[in-house]
Write a structure and sequence with these properties.
By secondary structure, the chain is an alpha+beta fold. The protein is built from 8 helices and 8 strands, in the order ααβββββββααααβαα.
Length: 293
Amino acid sequence: MSYDRDREEEIGPAERIAQNAGKALTALAFVFAAMLLWSCVVFIPAGHEGVLFNKLSGKVSETTLKQGWQLRVPVITRVIIYDCRRKAYTMSMALDEGQRMGQPDTNWSPTADGNMVGLDVTVWYRIPLDTAGKVYLRLGDQNWCEEQVIRPIIRNAVRLVVAKYTAPELYGIKRTEVQDKVKELVAKSFADDGFFILDGDGVFLRDVHLTPSYQRSIEEKVAAQQAIQRKQYEVEQAKQEALAIKIKNDALATAKSYLQLRTIEMLERKDFKVMVVPQSQGLILNLQEDQHK
């Protein structure tokens, strides 16, 4: 112990500074090595692909990086990560739905009968495996693709299909058929480009909106039809009541004639003691002449 203390006393300030500097440099070298090693790897989440872009050559690697830890050349290369899982692009009138939150985003399109309808749609799509590099090279990053590629394809398909149907058809019996037609056009556009594919059921027609003026005209038409149906019911009811009265009157007339006939027959036979004849029968009997005879 005395030897160590003597040794420390023999070390001068300059030597002590040199020792501390050496330790600091060692620590810095260790930190630099760790940072360099960290910059050489990149983590690709599950269901994603990475695209390697060389900043010096400006080229994109044909091989995409799969999920997990992957190596790359630091500083020179940049990794763009694409989500290759199912994604939904929604266009809706509701403010809290769809890609454009806080504003109505339905598809207003002219119909075959000259009206305007708004269609809320959701499209399920994804990037095929090993296609992320081509998407980045030809199109751009994923957010840009949604707004500049996916959205125009959906709007075009909706407009082409809606133009073949009338507003009542879109709002009613043809709704499923319209959904299938939109799906066909979107799938064809995706297949022609080769950048995206529909996933699962693909296209959902969420809702159909009418303009306020057309909505009022429908309500007025429905009200008019209901009024006509009510009048027809009242007329039919009156006819039934008139028919019932006629049948009743015919029955009463028949009964009256029969009663008069029976009364005359009984008077001719004179085989009665007391007979009650209603005044309504209009039967006049000359009983006095019969008594003189």
